Task: inverse folding
């Protein structure tokens, strides 16, 4: 089974090597990020995307950006770390993984004794650790999630919460990869995911690479697919999970959860603990990114609406906790009532 590597160090370690996700599924092009401008541009334009992957790319990007600086004192170097972390951490507001990773890098720099060259090497090791921890968390999400899958499973997913969005085998797609490894039969329905088509371009691409059956549908077709009895369960990823279990995820997730509730279909969210944000009380407190209206106005160089029409283009929505059957984390399956606590450990794991 081939699972892609979305983010890694370049051969020489002087760049962040990403798959340029804007080119998929037509071309598999890798892109090297060498400066803070490269890193911010890649995150903003969704060249690298998905909550865990942008956290990882941000942390690794900080290291390559710092390695180009000439700050000679510890004080100046820490100042540069702080301003780069602020800048990278603010590129996209909704996924908590990005500020989480940047705060972790900043804290590491501050508590590391010594001069810039020593701190830089510690930061490189920390970024690698963030990547490796994410890989391990994805695997554990897959193992925990497997128990929710029937022997032959038909699963509906939205956006891309797979290998392309993480440092490992994904979050929502992780139980599917583990099921496949164990020789189980799984069929995935992938919502196209308007307006940027992460479902049809990315989820369908990475699943076919791994030899997993996938059927793509337009977002508006999901409810009638459920009504027809074709869906056993829904699994989606998350960009931020509030303390009360409300979930921010790709726009369209909320509508899916409503449709799943109406049809009595389990609706699961899969996410690593780095996506849980106990400091945010409820979904109302999560900042939702609104993106350029041109993402809807134009397609393939053609205009898709009259010039005078306004555009509503939030990138994410909030699914209230009451619509979520369970949250699959690397620490186990959490069921309602959700009460995530400040340690980062999801309340309710194991009991
Ligand atoms: O705008 P995107 O493509 O970064 O949105 C990604 C999602 O909404 C994913 O579902 C989420 O980040 C989980 S990725 C494991």
Result:
């Amino acid at each position: 089974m081939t699972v892609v590597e979305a983010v890694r160090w370049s051969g020489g370690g002087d760049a962040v090597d990403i798959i340029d996700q804007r080119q998929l599924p037509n071309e598999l092009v890798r892109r090297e990020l060498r400066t803070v401008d490269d890193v911010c541009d890649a995150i903003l334009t969704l060249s690298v995307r998905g909550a865990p992957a942008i956290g990882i790319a941000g942390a690794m990007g900080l290291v390559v950006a710092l390695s180009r600086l000439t700050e000679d004192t510890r004080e100046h170097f820490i100042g540069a770390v702080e301003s780069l972390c602020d800048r990278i951490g603010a590129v996209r507001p909704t996924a908590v993984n990005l500020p989480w990773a940047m705060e972790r890098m900043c804290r590491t720099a501050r508590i590391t004794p010594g001069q810039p060259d020593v701190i830089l090497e510690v930061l490189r090791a920390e970024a690698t650790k963030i990547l490796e921890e994410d890989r391990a968390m994805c695997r554990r999400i897959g193992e925990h999630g497997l128990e929710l899958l029937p022997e032959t499973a038909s699963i509906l997913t939205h956006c891309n919460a797979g290998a392309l969005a993480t440092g490992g085998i994904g979050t929502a797609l992780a139980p599917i990869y583990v099921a496949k490894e164990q020789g189980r039969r799984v069929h995935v329905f992938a919502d196209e995911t308007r307006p940027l088509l992460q479902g049809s371009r990315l989820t369908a691409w990475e699943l076919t690479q791994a030899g997993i059956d996938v059927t793509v549908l337009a977002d508006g077709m999901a409810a009638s697919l459920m009504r027809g009895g074709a869906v056993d369960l829904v699994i989606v990823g998350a960009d931020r999970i509030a303390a009360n279990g409300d979930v921010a995820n790709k726009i369209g997730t909320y509508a899916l959860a409503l449709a799943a509730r109406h049809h009595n279909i389990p609706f699961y969210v899969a996410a690593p603990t780095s996506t849980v944000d106990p400091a945010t009380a409820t979904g109302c407190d999560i900042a939702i990114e609104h993106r350029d209206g041109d993402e809807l106005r134009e397609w393939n160089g053609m205009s898709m609406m009259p010039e005078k029409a306004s555009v509503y283009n939030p990138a994410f929505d909030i699914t209230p906790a009451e619509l979520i059957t369970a949250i699959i984390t690397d620490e186990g399956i959490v069921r309602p009532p959700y009460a995530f606590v400040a340690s980062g450990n999801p309340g309710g794991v194991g009991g």
User: Anything to note?
Assistant: The CA atoms of residues 93 and 114 lie 33 Å apart. Residues 344-351 have pLDDT under 50 and may be disordered. The chain is about 35% helix and 15% strand. The longest strand covers residues 185-191.
